Amino acid sequence: MSKNFSFGLRGKLVVIVVTGIVIGFTIIGVFRLNQAKQKIILEMNRSGNERVTLIAEAFSNLIIGYDYSNMESLSERIAKQDDVLQIDVRNKAGKIMVSRISDDYTPSSSKDLLFKSVIQFGGEPAGSVELKISLKRLETTIHETYTNIILEQVFFAIFLSILIFVVTSRVIVKPIGHFRDLMNTILNNPSESSHQKLVIKNKDEIGDLALIFNSMNNQVHEYQQRLKDKYNLADSALVATNEQLKIRTADLEKALRLVEQLAITDSLTNLPNRRHFDDYLATTFSRAVRFKEPLCMILLDIDHFKQINDTHGHAAGDYVLKELGKLFKSRIRETDVCARLGGDEFAILLYRAKIDDAMNWSQLLLRIIREHAFTEAGITLTVTLSIGIAQITADNHSIEALYNATDNALYEAKRRGRNQAVIYPFE
């Protein structure tokens, strides 16, 4: 990670600097190339003019004497020069007297410069010379100049890159690497390394930053030590307080569970109360309707319960209620629920039970009640029940309808003389 970080930072600096150098040298190179090109062209023009003037002076005597042999010989030697493409010698009237073309000259493809000079004799024009010179030397010189400029840029860029890479590594990247390494050490081992010093000898902004970092690191270490001391002092007190909180929390949870249980339980019979029964009925009724399962509801009243209270006292009445609660609870399944709705009224919900099953269960319960000995304070009490039964049907399609149907069956059982069970609908 350290090497990647260092190379990345140095690499960025090198790329930025070298990019600037390349752009700058490219502009300078183009400018130098244009200057060299112009200089070479001017030199070729000057040289060409001098040559054509000298050639014109050489032909002055020959053209006056009509010395064709020497003119042709001289033209032949001039045409054989490397950069000469063509030479034409004309008389005063403009008629070509001698013309020679280089063997390599192709007018359609060759690039050339044309130079002209008047041939004078005795101060009077006697003819003219036209000299075509090849541009190959110009192109070769420009190409060499361009190559040299590029090589200079490449070598200089490489040299600067290496120099910047080395200098930035020592002056900038290495101190920053020390910063990073120490910070990682502190991050991974804060308790052991937060007091370490960052040693950087730079006398610049990085050195100032190291001094600031060391100062901050010392302060952080002092704060950590103070916090550690305070933590050690408070640790025992916190442990004791935490234990007390655990005890109080357990007591509160226990009390909360008791309150919740009391909210849904009848305190006398320990059976679910009406609130719990209604909640269970709502859930079970919805599930039975959704899955088209049978559900029966039973309402039970103690026959002549007021007479028991009036004759034998409320203690006897409470005894009867408790005994009945025990009997009801012992006869239902885990999926059923038996609740005391209030006073002497009880309700039982038989889930997934058909109306005949509910009737058989009720008849069995009536027989058990008749055979059970209800004895309180040496007094034998006679206890019977009136029972109403109803199930979910097309008519009893709601909880209210089911309640009403079961309640009507209960009152029908009382009307028929009590101590019996009646199914709704009844005849």
From TrEMBL:
PROSITE patterns: GGDEF, HAMP. CDD domains: GGDEF. Its EC number is 2.7.7.65. The chain crosses the membrane at residues 12-31, 154-173. One of its GO terms (biological process) is signal transduction. One of its GO terms (cellular component) is membrane. GO terms for molecular function: diguanylate cyclase activity. It catalyses: 2 GTP = 3',3'-c-di-GMP + 2 diphosphate. Residues 293-426 form the GGDEF domain. InterPro entries: Diguanylate_Cyclase (IPR050469), GGDEF_dom (IPR000160), HAMP_dom (IPR003660), Nucleotide_cyclase (IPR029787), Rev_trsase/Diguanyl_cyclase (IPR043128). The keyword Transmembrane applies. Keywords: Membrane, Transmembrane, Transmembrane helix. Residues 170-225 form the HAMP domain. Pfam families: GGDEF. It comes from the Bacteria. NCBIfam families: GGDEF (TIGR00254). This is diguanylate cyclase. It comes from Sulfurirhabdus autotrophica. The lineage of its organism: Bacteria, Pseudomonadati, Pseudomonadota, Betaproteobacteria, Nitrosomonadales.
